[in-house]
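Lines hold sequence, tokenised fold; shown next:
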Amino acid sequence: MRILIVSQMWPGPSDPDLGSFVATSAAQLEALGHDVDRAVIDHRGGSRLKYPRLCLDALRAARRTRPDVIFAHMLFPAGLAGLIASVGGRVPLVVMAHGADVANLGRVPGVTGVTRLVLGRSSGLIVNSAWLGRALDEQIPGSAARARVIDCGVDLDLFRPADAATARAELGWEGDGPAFVCVGSLVPRKNVVGLADAFADLGRGRLAFVGDGPLRRELEGRPGVRVVGRVPQATVTRWIAACDVLCQPSVREPFGQAALEAMAMERSVVATTEGGPAEFVTPAAGLLVAPGDPRALRNALVAAAALRSPNPAARAVAELHGARVQASRMAAVLADAARTA
């Protein structure tokens, strides 16, 4: 198949971490023998004109490359851009919900109506977790009945087991006690301040935040805490390798990509009960914590640090979510849409 990917998230020079999971899916679709073109936004911020430009780029790409199917990542605005390209190029559309797009329904004026239109005109719908499918159905009833649960998976070659001591030496992050890493944006939804407070209550080890955001200043300067900032995906793997436990105790986490990547590297995890992690984090792989319970989070850090490190049980679960397997499942949905359009 010739596939046109439309996405507002794609790694770029200034934001190498943006939408890395979308890029991984695209690479795996290519590895399966499909031709993949793209119309994407590869940077955060900037003028809002980038969204109309995405719509125009998608339409032009659809007319130029004549794909068999359009695959839009995010219901809005990428879904709207995909819809415009679908109508203008007379190409079937498949859309994938990732999380923020569903959270914006009913919160950002006009988004629900546009999303309902996108879903009504699409030939396929993918959600990255059953939890997200239920959340979408609450806002747009009936959508879950046609949704396929498929996550972007994890690149098992990139995120493979690696020696912690070597990674710590390379990063200059050696020390005593358990090593914790949190990968993601430093925003309230990720509960990063709550994690830093729980770590402080623990009173031992070290904690690194790999990411950036408005809460950075509330994290910097704390004893045992290091704020790394945003780094390319290849560097993310070194930080995961350096830890004993990957922490993702978000207020809500539609899927939990960082947790899955850490599990692929044989690292135990602490993740939230509110979202997708509960669908793949087993007791042998880590701990699940209800958001808003500081004592439970502190206790989870202790329990997770006591698990095996490295943790082969975590890798075994992650292998069920390999990016190649998940891309094959996506390709089946795309092929159905192309065939039945």
